[in-house]
Amino acid sequence: MSGQSLTDRIAAAQHSMTGSAISKAVCKATTHEVSGPKKKHLDYLIHCTNELNVSVPHLADTLLERTTSNSWIVVFKALITTHHLMMYGNERLIQYLASRNTLFNLNNFLDKAALQGYDMSTFIRRYSRYLNEKAMSYRLVAVDFTKMKRGADGVMRTMNTEKLIKTLPIIQNQLDALLDFQPNSNELTNGVINAAFMLLFKDSIRLFAAYNEGVINMLEKYFDMKKNQCKEALEIYKTFLNRMTKLSEFLKVAERVGIDQGDSPDLTQAPSSLLEALEQHLASLEGRKIKEFSTASRYAELSKYITQLPQQLCNAVTANP
């Protein structure tokens, strides 16, 4: 269905009569038009999140109510609008979403009204799980990983060992949920799913930047860690390598649908000798037989790797405001 439906027009008129400007804007952002939410409605809602006299719970609950629709278009656009406000709106919105006991309950969503509804419902279920995980991450650490300060004096680079080992798995879980969206380029067939994918693409760059900086910090601390910390850190690092492969596949889809390759980081894989150095160090702490691998060699492998990625990621983040 293209264009605003009669239902959309009636709903907007009702909100105009009751004086609910927020409800009207949400309604207009989540019409039955097969296109992403219009910028003017998103900008207005962002403005609302910054107004102290605006009820953020009312705004969030209005968006959540739109996800109870039977239409994949309305539900998808409600999720996109929520994601957009989480990214660009005032932090008190994500604070409220994180404080709720339940958020999006769309694991069984299915629009049977049209063939396209079946296809898009799959992505709605995946997308809602990511937004739930994004809110959960905020609840656990009280920070949005995609917005935190980066660089040598950033949050992840200056975090202590104990907190770092607890925080990195939370980033991993959020990135996993994002990468589980798993579209093929030929499935990005309309303006609605394309709008969602673009927001996910931007989140993936920032999320991985935080993840990468945390891993660099962890590796710099690794040879001074206690045995149990080394064991956890090694598993985190192995998971990180796997996520790099998955993210690379996700970014290839972005490239195929026309997102500039210059907007993506060059995910240079660490040499296998670095993983070997980490494994050998843990083996030595556990008293297992190891092959000769000098401390100087370990640090050489580490230094060679950690100097490669930060600037590439910084450039990618800057290119995707």
UniProtKB/TrEMBL annotation:
Keywords on record: Acetylation, Cell membrane, Coated pit, Cytoplasmic vesicle, Endocytosis, Golgi apparatus, Isopeptide bond, Membrane, Nucleus, Phosphoprotein, Ubl conjugation
A GO MF term: clathrin heavy chain binding
Pfam families: ANTH
A GO CC term assigned to this protein in UniProt: Golgi apparatus
Chief location category: membrane
Any GO BP: clathrin coat assembly
CDD domains: ANTH_N_AP180 (cd16985)
Residues in ENTH domain copies: 14-145
Coiled coil (UniProt feature): none
InterPro entries with a match to the protein in the record: ANTH_dom, ANTH_dom_sf, AP180-like, ENTH, ENTH_VHS
Compartments (UniProt record): Cell membrane; Cytoplasmic vesicle, Clathrin-coated vesicle; Golgi apparatus; Membrane, Clathrin-coated pit
Protein family (similarity comment): Belongs to the PICALM/SNAP91 family.
Subunit structure: Binds to clathrin; involves primarily the C-terminal sequences, but the full-length protein is required for full binding capacity. Binds phosphatidylinositol 4,5- bisphosphate. Interacts with PIMREG; this interaction may change the subcellular location into the nucleus. Interacts with AP2A1 (via its alpha-appendage domain). Interacts (via N-terminus) with VAMP2; VAMP3; VAMP7 and VAMP8 (Via N-terminus). Interacts with LC3/MAP1LC3A.
Described function: Cytoplasmic adapter protein that plays a critical role in clathrin-mediated endocytosis which is important in processes such as internalization of cell receptors, synaptic transmission or removal of apoptotic cells. Recruits AP-2 and attaches clathrin triskelions to the cytoplasmic side of plasma membrane leading to clathrin-coated vesicles (CCVs) assembly. Furthermore, regulates clathrin-coated vesicle size and maturation by directly sensing and driving membrane curvature.
Protein name: Phosphatidylinositol-binding clathrin assembly protein
Organism expressing this protein natively: Myripristis murdjan
